[in-house]
Structures
1.
Amino acid sequence: MIRMVDLKTQYENMREEIDRAVLEVIASTEYINGTAVKRFQAELEEYLQVKHVIPCANGTDALQIAMMALELKPGDEVIVPAFTYVATAEVIALLGLTPVMVDVYPDSFNINVEQARAAITPRTRAIVPVHLFGQSADMEPILQMAQQHNLYVIEDNAQATGSDYCFSDGECRKTGTMGHIGCTSFFPSKNLGCYGDGGAMMTHDDDLAQRLRMVANHGQNQLYHHAVIGVNSRLDSIQAAVLSVKLKRLDQYNANRRRAADYYDAAFGDMPQLKIPTRSANTTHVFHQYTLVLREGNRDALKQHLAERGIPAMVYYPIPLYKQQAFARYWAGGELPVTEQLCRSVISLPMHSELTLEQQDQIVEGVRSFFA
Ligand SMILES: *Cc1c(COP(=O)(O)O)cnc(C)c1O
């Protein structure tokens, strides 16, 4: 059976190890902030080569806690791409901050740095580059711009765990570890996913790490002493135990995704009706999604055509953020042309670490027959 994401086959391939890890936590009764959480935190710090990983309950919380820890105040403006998942901008609005939505590049789908620069005002305090679909936003000019204008950089790394970004001096870093704070999600379908909800924040800054921990834990700086208004956001030990098992396999999972993407690229590369995903030169694409852009033909008709053949496909994302009813008050009107174009023409095919060549042949045939 072809699935967008095949967590069932993935689990079956490591069932014994997962079951043992989960049962160990149950027997330990350390369900919250237990040994398993501390172990996973240290393992992820080592993998990402970052000084601090602060686990939390989900990726949306990670973004919210990051903005709370940076003490952003109502009225402060935060620049975000208009082509992203709602969570990125939602937490900004929730905290009374103002999301300022800008366009993305047509090739990488990531935030357009010049448009972000043009959107800076005296009230701008932060920018949230999203590493969309598995490759890094162009962090070097973003970090330079942020430094020039005194902005915080909060990376939304929910879709790109394991991706590298290389600077012009040759230094490479993991996405999520380049800004002041990186945020990620361990939602089951992400590249590194658990069996429920989970998330984390990353930072090299000791003071910021302490603040993030404090905000995530009811603003508490010592037991029953609450220095700031915080939230309750924890990664539970069972999820951490699952994540430890899967982190060991993350590079292999991402390599499998890249191999599947290579196969799609070869199959679709010669079709004038389709644009295959562009791989930016200075980042490794970990293909959270494999997203085609239709140059001709009706995208929704293609989705329907595939569905009739038992092939799932998804549209990430069909509506620009600024056209969502909830965000109407943050938009003065007009359109961002690239975001509009992408919302009309993108389609994501099944992409996961267990995709077989047989399944991919079937998917390729399904797509090709639509244009035949
Ligand atoms: C999944 C995702 C989030 C939110 O993660 P949750 O764990 O579901 O809260 C945020 N941003 C992006 C880009 C995502 O893909």
Note: The domain at 250-370 is CATH 3.90.1150.10 (Aspartate Aminotransferase, domain 1).
2.
Amino acid sequence: MKLPIYMDNHATTPVDPRVFEAMRPYLTNIFGNSASRNHSFGWEAEEATEKARKQVASLIGATSKEIVFTSGATESNNLALKGVAEMYAEKGNHIITAATEHKAILDTCKRLEKHGTRVTYLPVQQNGLVDLDQLRMAITDKTVLISIMHANNEIGVLQPIREIGKIAKERGVLLHTDGTQAAGKIPVSVLDDNIDLMSISAHKMYGPKGVGALYVRRRNPRVQLTAQMDGGGHERGMRSGTLNVPGIVGLGEACALAQAEMPAESKRLAFLRDKLKERLMNSLDEVYINGTLEHRLPNNLNISFAYVEGESLLMGINEIAVSSGSACTSATLEPSYVLKALGAGDDLAHSSIRFGLGRFNTEAEVDYVAGKVIEVVKKLRELSPLYEMFKEGIDLTKVQWTAH
Ligand SMILES: *Cc1c(COP(=O)(O)O)cnc(C)c1O
């Protein structure tokens, strides 16, 4: 086993060597522009991007004409939200999303609000899921789009997308889902789930960075978008710009591998994740899992270790790459807005760690990580006066603190 250990696969994933091999010719001798219609260099490139388009479509049960290639999920989310808001402005100006969405959704909504769009940010329940009755109540005759992510990037919880799709369909509202963490990890069917738009990204599924796709439904209903990038009219006018041929080939191969290997891979990752969880919970008290375990990605574990600072824990396990629930913004440590939306107090949010298992993690690594985390949490708690008071049975909520 080699150190450091990478267990932060929600942030990004390494490129699968098979994906790299598929890309290699398109980074060297097959260099044509897929929009060049007059010679074999262009045809070869086009053939490669069309194969990838089929591979992406197949993973989510779409048809290849419904796939628009982009630079990643951030761009796909921007294109979906801004493109719909602009195209359907006459129909209405209201969008519904959730408080726990990725910043690429929330910040896009903030921008749209400056231009007159009204946005409802649904709260989530303590388990991390949106309340379907609240969703139903939020829909008005001005609602043009619901954007709810499929799988959350911090806590891995899976929103009830099929039920949300049913509600959207009944009410004649389009449904976009940020599927970045779900695609390639769990089965997704845009038809069964009534998804109209879906964002995906290659680098979250063992493909290269800087390439992704937006699924745009063509039938029942046919979704239209106002392009956000003007130029040569590529991607059926929805996204201009010369196609990133090697990146797209990599995305396609990553989708094909994920589709073929998903049943075995998700079983293996769920086994490893559960092993990690069991070991931590059996050896440590006062640990809390953030978000429902029942509806969750197989590779995610987000745990708070009470009486321990996440940042100190990260430093103690510095040969293990994971994320903490505190986002370092400028000089201050902000607790994660996702954990706060679940109702976690600041201290529990600050003491949380996100483990994101991936294709290349081994059982030996999981054993090592479990042992190391247990050791460091115990050590840190030995230094914690609060933990000592807790062990002595003092009710910390009733302690009168003196101010300094
Ligand atoms: C990573 C991520 C994004 C951003 O994707 P990029 O391809 O890096 O732009 C958006 N949404 C979710 C849920 C993500 O995990």
Note: Residues 245-283 form the longest helix (39 residues).
